[in-house]
Write a structure and sequence with these properties.
Shape: globular
Order of helices and strands: HEHHEEEHHHHHHHHE
Strand content: 5-15%
CATH architecture of the largest domain: Up-down Bundle
CATH topology of the largest domain: Four Helix Bundle (Hemerythrin (Met), subunit A)
Radius of gyration: 19 Å
Largest sheet: 3 strands, antiparallel
Length: about 220
């Protein structure tokens, strides 16, 4: 990887992360100069990163006006949820078959960190460890490449999930309860229960979307 490519990727990952966490708010104009200052990266890598983000539907370019953070595409988020549910149910079956004490401890550590985030009311740590739990299950199933593919194609879902974490009235404990139940099924190597719980867990978006949309109505399109 050349220095130029490395800087572009660094800019891309940083801006994408800010989009997911709504640090760059949906619908707001993007200042290339401000990005240069905050990321300490030159204009060319920033512009190339914005082009990449535009190709992924995360940045909109309006002629004679500039670049804007795209609204969250609810259709795209729902489609990503659908794909993830059907993939992850199979992943959990494979995870059950490959579970052992070492892998159990990995999941225990992540759940412990997520519990700590709940007690500290640390939304970013909670969200990060939520993703780590699922990523670890893909790794246990030896499907890291599938997880990477999902990460590259589910940004609108990630944006929705972050707003869910930040929405008052939607308790984090609900997610923790389901993680504990799923952990129990995995460690007992009960594929039928793990399959059911995975489907239940990934239906949370559908069950809670009205509350999220009502709280952040200006952040979405295709409602």
């Amino acid at each position: 990887m050349t220095i130029k490519t490395s800087l572009q990727n660094q800019a891309y990952q940083s801006i994408r992360r800010q989009i997911i966490y709504a640090d760059l708010e949906p619908g707001k104009k993007v200042s290339e100069k401000k990005l240069e200052e905050t990321l300490s990266i030159g204009r060319t890598p920033i512009r190339e990163a914005l082009i990449q983000l535009r190709q992924q539907g995360l940045v909109d370019t309006i002629p004679q006006s500039g670049n804007y953070i795209s609204l969250i595409d609810l259709d795209s988020a729902k489609n990503a949820r659908f794909v993830r549910e059907h993939l992850e149910r199979q992943i959990m079956l494979e995870c059950c078959a490959k579970m052992n004490n070492q892998k159990k401890r990995i999941l225990e550590t992540i759940i412990s960190e997520q519990e700590k985030a709940v007690s500290q009311k640390n939304a970013r740590s909670f969200f990060h460890n939520d993703n780590l739990f699922h990523k670890a299950c893909f790794e246990i199933a030896e499907r890291e490449e599938v997880w990477q593919w999902l990460e590259n194609n589910n940004t609108h879902l990630e944006r929705f999930r972050w707003l869910r974490v930040k929405t008052e009235g939607l308790k984090w404990e609900k997610i923790m309860e389901q993680h504990y139940q799923l952990f129990d099924a995995l460690t007992k190597q009960d594929p039928e229960e793990a399959n059911f719980l995975t489907s239940l867990h990934l239906h949370l978006m559908l069950n809670e979307q009205k509350i999220v949309l009502a709280t952040h109505p200006k952040y979405f399109k295709n409602i």
